[in-house]
Amino acid sequence: MTTASTTRTLTPSQRSAAAVGRVAQRLAIEEIRALSAALAEVAADEVEKNTGFAERVKRRYQEMKAKPSRASQSPKSSLPKRGGPQPRVAAGRTPGEHIDIVSPTDPRTLVPLYGQDLEAHLEEYSVRALWDMARVLTPHVGEKAPAQKSGRAALIAYILRYVR
User: Fold this and answer.
1) Cα–Cα distance between 151 and 112 in angstroms, integer?
2) 112-116, long-range: CB within 8 Å, 24+ apart, which pairs?
3) Hey, how many other C-beta atoms are within 10 angstroms of the C-beta on 39?
4) pLDDT tens digits, 99-131
5) What is the pLDDT of residues 83-96, one digit of tens each?
6) How far apart are CA 42 and CA 160, in angstroms?
7) Which residues contact 83 (CB under 8 A, 6 or more apart)?
8) What are phi and psi of 106, to 5 degrees?
9) For the segment 51-82, what is each residue's pLDDT rounded down to a tens digit?
10) Please, which residues have CB within 8 angstroms of residue 21's CB and are 6 or more apart in sequence?
11) Which residues contact 64 (CB under 8 A, 6 or more apart)?
């Protein structure tokens, strides 16, 4: 259970995530989005049936509304937050490179741009985009690309095997 002193320094989004995390841990559930929706639906049903529960929810809401979170009290900074993911910036452009925004990306063109950071950069692509990249490589490497349903890790491993 969280204490009042620790929850007051968190934003409402952080408090919500922490509460869902506590329930997920207690119930041994890994799918957080579905759990969050389930909690909201069950709470809505309970508010309609149980006046005591409804009053507890209303009191907690009033407490949160009365005491603004620490994040909302400080001025917003234009600097990126420390420790969070930093935007990936390409190291440069390949001479003679033509960018075709309609065709799938050829992952071989990403190597000179991202170098050792290529794997982390590939993690940011959707599974569909990774599959499209793998299909671009297939005629050049002679090995069939993994199925799209094989997942992100298998597609990234296939791409990295043939571009490095």
Assistant:
1) 25
2) 114/88, 114/90, 115/91
3) 15
4) 667 788 888 888 888 888 889 889 888 888 898
5) 555 555 555 555 66
6) 45
7) none
8) -85, 115
9) 998 899 899 888 888 776 555 555 555 555 55
10) 32
11) 12, 15
CA dist., res. 133 & res. 75, Å (int): 42
Single-letter code of the amino acid located at 150? S
Q: How far is CA 71 from CA 12, 63, 67, 77, in A?
A: 10, 16, 11, 11
CA distance 118 to 96: 21
Q: What is the DSSP letter of 102?
A: S
Structure tokens at 159: 């791409």
**How far is Cα of residue 140 from the mean position of the Cα atoms in its chain?**
33
The separation between CA 47 and the C-alpha centre of its own chain, rounded to angstroms, equals 31
Provide the phi-psi class of 7: left if phi over 0, else alpha when psi is between -120 and 50, else beta: alpha
Which residue bears the tokens 């997920």?
24
Nearest to 112 by CA among 121, 123, 124, 103: 121
91 burial level (CB within 10 Å; 0-12, 13-18, 19+): exposed
Per the structure block, which two tokens stand in for 110?
Answer: 């990403």
Among the listed residues 126, 109, 128, 123, the one whose alpha carbon sits nearest the alpha carbon of residue 156: 123
- pLDDT per position as a tens digit, 124-162: 888 888 988 888 888 888 888 888 788 889 999 999 998
Tokens encoding 143: 């090995």
